[in-house]
């Protein structure tokens, strides 16, 4: 006789617990806090799953049930940090908001976690699951914040309605990534400050692209 299939959960009913040991309340927070501490203390290369488990007071298997690699665990730490540090307070001034957004992005990329992020990105090229998490946890939230700025400018009639949000985002970040890779020419200064300082660099990049983003004046085709 065939087994009777289990009835689906009724609407509003609590989800059924899967077989296995239940998750310990607060374990995720403890693990991520321990991983962040060790990442700051030892860097990516000096961090190990075993040490994170020890500091968090959990079994190593507990970590691997949640994150299948060190890179994935570090990605979660970096994503939480990025969410806290890359917040842009809208001013209503589209240009100022773009400069603020890009400056925060540049500062975040140059922070203590920059080396760890480079390793995660490098590993993601070989790990499809990690690459998907990278897009979902880091790139998607950042792009959505950027889209909100452009949408506001379009709604105000200030920016072109046909802008390719993804391409504009990449074009704004491209010069900053180039400087981070190859360094800035020390002869390039602006008001006594080198152009690779985040707020100066962000303003110069936005100003160079600004004419291409603007909507045509009323009455012009």
How would you characterize this protein structure?
By secondary structure, the chain is mainly α. It contains nine helices and two strands, in the order H-H-H-H-H-H-H-H-E-E-H. The protein has helices at 27-46, 49-56, 60-66, 70-85, 94-109, 114-124, 128-155, 165-182, 198-213; strands spanning 189-190, 193-194. Strands 1-2 form a two-stranded antiparallel sheet. Helix 4 (70-85) packs parallel to helix 7, helix 5 packs antiparallel against helix 7 and helix 6 (114-124) packs across helix 7 (128-155). The chain is elongated and about 65 Å long. The N and C termini lie far apart (75 Å). The model is unreliable at 1-22 (pLDDT under 50).
H/E series: HHHHHHHHEEH
Distance between the termini: 75 Å
Largest sheet: 2 strands, antiparallel
Overall pLDDT confidence: 79
Structural class from helices and strands? Answer: mainly alpha
| Tertiary shape | elongated
Individual helix count: 9
Strand content: under 5%
List keywords for this structure.
221 residues; 2 strands; two-stranded antiparallel ribbon; mainly alpha; single chain; 9 helices; disordered N terminus
Brief summary:
This protein has 221 residues and is mainly alpha-helical. The chain is built from 9 helices and 2 strands; from the N terminus they run H-H-H-H-H-H-H-H-E-E-H. The model is unreliable at 1-22 (pLDDT under 50).
Layout of helices and strands:
Layout: H1 27-46, H2 49-56, H3 60-66, H4 70-85, H5 94-109, H6 114-124, H7 128-155, H8 165-182, E1 189-190, E2 193-194, H9 198-213
Antiparallel strand pairs: 1-2
């Amino acid at each position: 006789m065939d087994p009777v299939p289990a009835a689906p959960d009724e609407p509003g009913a609590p989800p059924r617990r899967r077989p296995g040991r239940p998750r310990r309340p607060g374990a995720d927070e403890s693990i991520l806090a321990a991983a962040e501490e060790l990442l700051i203390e030892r860097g990516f290369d000096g961090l190990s799953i075993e040490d994170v488990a020890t500091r968090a007071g959990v079994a190593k298997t507990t970590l691997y049930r949640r994150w299948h690699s060190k890179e994935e665990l570090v990605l979660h730490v970096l994503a939480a940090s990025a969410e806290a540090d890359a917040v842009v307070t809208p001013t209503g001034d589209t240009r100022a908001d773009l400069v603020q957004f890009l400056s925060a992005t540049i500062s975040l990329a140059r922070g203590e976690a920059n080396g760890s992020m480079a390793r995660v990105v490098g590993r993601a090229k070989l790990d499809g699951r990690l690459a998907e998490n990278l897009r979902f946890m880091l790139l998607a939230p950042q792009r959505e914040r950027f889209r909100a700025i452009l949408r506001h400018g379009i709604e105000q009639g200030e920016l072109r309605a046909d802008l390719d949000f993804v391409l504009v985002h990449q074009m704004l970040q491209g010069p900053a990534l180039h400087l981070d890779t190859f360094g800035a020419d020390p002869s390039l200064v602006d008001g006594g400050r080198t152009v690779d300082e985040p707020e100066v660099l962000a303003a110069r990049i936005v100003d160079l692209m600004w004419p291409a983003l603007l909507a045509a004046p009323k009455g012009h085709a």
